[in-house]
Amino acid sequence: MKTNIVLYWVLAGFFLLSAAIYTVWSIMDPYHGEIEWVGTPALLCLALLFGFIAFYITKGYLNQGGELVEDRIDSSIDDGDPELGHFSPWSWWPITLGAAAALVFLGVAIGTWIFLIGITVVVVALVGWTYEYYRGYFAS
Prior knowledge:
The chain has four helices and no strands. By secondary structure, it is mostly helical. Helix 1 packs antiparallel against helix 2 and helix 3 packs antiparallel against helix 4 (112-130). The relative contact order is 0.09.
């Protein structure tokens, strides 16, 4: 994690320095002579993006209170494999929800009637996935 933090801070600094050099170079250009309004803001946005990512990873690292399992030399594979939650390997509802989301996005691009069908299928898929363990073999 420390390596990632350093890498993103270095990239943020690199793009900030590149933006400064690019701006000075475009001002010194005898044919142009002014700030180039595409490259300079793009490089500044890249520096800002990598700065945001570096800041986020730094705060996450500090909130976890130290080294991650991946950073320790004496750790094994089982140390970095916690229980992340309960997942249904037999469930068809995630596939239905993905297809419904595709219909919603298709409806935004093509027509309102497809969007309404997609929203209806999204609601049905969410309810089905939520209440999957309350019916059939898995009812408790």
